[in-house]
Write a structure and sequence with these properties.
single chain, 259 residues, alpha/beta, 7 strands, 39% helix
Length: 259
Amino acid sequence: MGELCARSVLVTGANRGLGLGLVQHLLKMPNPPQWVFAGCRDPKGKQAQELQNLASKHSNLIIIPLEVANPASIKAAAARVGEHLGGSGLNLLINNAGIAKVTKIENETLEDMTEIYTTNTVGPLLMGQAFLPLLKKAAQGSPGSGLSCSKAAIINMSSKGGSITHLEGWEVMHYTSYRCSKAALNMLSKCQSLAYREDGILCIALHPGWVQTDMGSGAGYMPPLTVDDSVKGMLKVLSSLSEKDTGTFVDWEGKVVPW
């Protein structure tokens, strides 16, 4: 198993938590990507300060304004990324941006369900559509017939909380709208894997573990996993994926997660 060798990577929700951790680790790799695109809603805001500091030190880090619940923002981001890449494509799209609300099932509302589904499920769908030409271009420009993250891939950040077979943590936190959105994201990942396989694009759903982020700690419990450990594990998993893995749901240690 070698190191991830993607020439270009886009991470959504990159201003904090797992998104920021992924960007930091990608930049620290012995052979970092030529381009790391960090998508976030407000690149000049206070929550993006750490990302701005990184960009001032790394010329290969490009911050992209991106709201994954806004189709116009997604299209504009795809155009900007395409301009930076010139004639080459995008190797790796990591749909990390997501939201959750701590709400009991009896208190769920149409507005919350719609907002969370739009961001967590529809967003990755629209991202895949908008960046498909760049992913195809990367796949066409890569040698070999197999699938890999170094060639072209869509990684959808899911959650074991969306598993219908193994509904983890229900006693601790309901998160009904979040769970439903992630279950739907898992199906989207499977559909993308079938639709884009002939284009040379690998697609998976990835569970990062229960991580010490603002979202992970939202229910008032301390998650067992640090961002650093989760990201290290996920990057190791991404480096090992091949055509046999496309369409699967795996975790940060490479274990298959029950659907």
